[in-house]
Design brief:
Layout: H1 10-21, E1 26-31, H2 38-46, E2 50-55, H3 62-77, H4 89-100, H5 103-106, E3 112-117, H6 119-122, H7 129-139, E4 147-153, H8 156-164, E5 176-179, H9 185-194, H10 201-211, H11 215-218, H12 227-236, H13 245-253, H14 257-269, H15 276-283, H16 289-300, E6 304-307, E7 318-321, H17 324-331, H18 353-369, H19 371-378, E8 385-395, E9 401-412, E10 416-423, H20 433-450, E11 455-462, H21 470-475, E12 478-480, H22 482-485
Parallel strand pairs: 1-4, 1-5, 2-3, 3-4, 10-11, 11-12
Antiparallel strand pairs: 6-7, 8-9, 9-10
Helix pairs in contact: 3-4, 4-7, 8-16, 10-12, 10-17, 10-18, 13-14
Length: 486
């Protein structure tokens, strides 16, 4: 069961469709970062099946949240008046049960959806909301085979700790869970086309590097403009939607958001990733317990990513900033003064060395996110693989240190390793003598340090391919281009 207005989200739609077909009560948790499209997905997919919905209010008191509940229940009942505000959340859930069991609702012989949006915001201090929710499901909801209870939240870490991996009354109660991620490149292309925004794939990559695949950000794009015009309008003009989004984004997701922002800013400076201990050192913090929790929360929310380098142990994992908008904000938007109109700012920097360096790194991160597409282009989608960064160093015959760093290494079970080199270019990429020497060194260092006997294939991932010169013929075995990432 696919909905025409929902772009992509194939797996998620299949999951929700299974819930409708189920003959059992369903309890579904949906989580993902702010603006990623969680609410739209649930409302659009279930639409006429939703009999009650409530959205938590950010930083509101318990009384305000209960007032919000009464208003929501009155709207669902359609009786033209607001029920009396419940005295507690236990009272609120009893009101909801009476409403659900009323003849008005029960005459609908089908699955019915109760939807709690921004659930973490409803759980105000000392409100006992979570206890009331647990009691509601365990004593009543779990016995209603016509019920689909959907709980949704942008604070991914709270959702995971309190709902998905709950150790309390909701332990093992979920029947389904969805972690909603940003659009892929192909989904972004489909979304823009659905809004009559016609851009080349190169310009879509240009936009993706600045705002990622966040549907609400992409909705701000107006048809008829180039990618550079769109970026300037949305990111740099004083009234641009993304010019002041950064602080709102983190403060809405995390208490004490400054701690999280500090980690993000440190990772933005260190493009090759940092270990947990290196992050602690950069923060000037000795104890790692709190920071470990912060890193986990940022990773679950989709802002950062950890990967264990090839041949290393789990405690040697490297952390990267992977949220495109956060990186773009720190590198570019944050440099604007408050009174700067932003007009012409981006256009004047399109050919600057800083812009080229930023684009190269941002493109690498996008390629790594689309590793499955790279594997598909290489014809190894069904081959068991592990993907990781790698770096190594050894002493040469003259006692000089010889090292290499590989951002994406695909280690395959068919006795093959792909060394992936990712290069962003506005035309065919050219391998010159200096870069050819660098490529040879990467292969040699990998063989020397790891002692691998596997076949090593040098793979170039570029926007428009690689110029067919002598260096290309000598060194490159595979090429992947922009279209493959879509």
């Amino acid at each position: 069961m696919k909905k025409k207005r929902i772009i992509g989200r194939e797996y998620e739609q299949d999951t929700l469709s299974d819930a409708i077909k189920s003959r059992e009560p369903e309890f579904i948790a949906v989580y993902g970062r702010r603006r990623v499209g969680k609410t739209f997905l649930i409302k659009e997919f279930f639409k006429e099946l939703i009999v009650f919905e409530i959205t938590g209010i950010h930083k509101a008191s318990m009384n305000d949240q209960l007032e919000n509940f009464a208003i929501s229940l009155g709207r669902a009942a359609g009786v033209g008046f607001k029920p009396q505000r419940p005295l507690s959340w236990f009272d609120a859930f009893q009101q909801l049960i009476r409403f659900y069991e009323s003849p008005f609702i029960n005459k609908k012989k089908r699955k019915k959806v109760i939807f709690f949006d921004e659930l973490p915001w409803l759980n105000t201090p000392r409100s006992k909301f979570l206890s009331a929710l647990e009691h509601f499901w365990n004593s009543w909801g779990a016995n209603r085979d016509d019920l689909i209870l959907v709980v949704c939240g942008s604070a991914a870490s709270w959702m995971i700790q309190n709902i998905v991996t709950s150790k309390g009354g909701l332990h093992n109660r979920l029947t389904k869970q969805i972690r909603l991620l940003p659009f892929t490149l192909s989904e972004t292309e489909l979304f823009l086309k659905s809004r009559n925004v016609k851009l080349s794939r190169f310009q879509i990559i240009d936009l993706y590097m600045t705002m990622g695949g966040i549907p609400h950000y992409l909705k701000q794009i107006e048809p008829g403009l180039s990618s550079s015009q769109i970026i300037e309008d949305i990111c740099f003009l004083s009234g641009g939607f993304l010019r002041h989004e950064f602080n709102k984004l983190y403060s809405s997701l995390f208490d004490k958001s400054r701690q999280y922002v500090n980690i993000i800013k440190i990772l933005a400076k260190k493009r090759k990733g940092l270990t947990r201990n290196e992050i602690l050192e950069s923060l000037g913090v000795s104890s790692g317990g709190t920071i470990s929790a912060r890193l986990q929360e940022l990773e679950e929310s989709g802002f950062i990513q950890s990967r264990i380098p090839f041949g290393k142990k789990s405690n040697e994992a490297l952390y990267w900033l992977t949220d495109e908008y956060s990186l773009f904000y720190i590198d570019w938007i944050s440099k604007l003064k408050n009174n700067d109109s932003g007009k012409g700012y981006w256009q004047a920097r399109l050919n600057s060395p800083k812009k080229r360096a930023w684009a190269g790194y941002a493109f690498e991160r996008i390629c790594i996110k689309h590793t499955d597409k790279i594997k598909e282009a290489l014809g190894i989608l069904n081959v068991e693989t592990s993907e990781a960064p790698w770096q190594g160093r050894y002493l040469g015959d003259d006692k000089s240190s010889i090292g290499a760093q590989i951002d994406l290494l695909i280690d395959r079970k068919d006795q093959t390793i792909n060394i992936c080199e990712m290069k962003f270019s506005e035309s065919e990429f050219v391998i010159d003598k200096k870069y050819a020497n660098s490529l040879r060194q990467k292969v040699n260092v990998l063989k020397k340090v790891t002692g691998t006997k596997k076949n090593i294939l040098l793979t170039m991932i570029t926007t428009f391919g690689v110029k067919d010169n002598n260096y290309y013929k000598e060194l490159v075995q595979n090429t992947v281009v922009l279209d493959d990432l879509f």
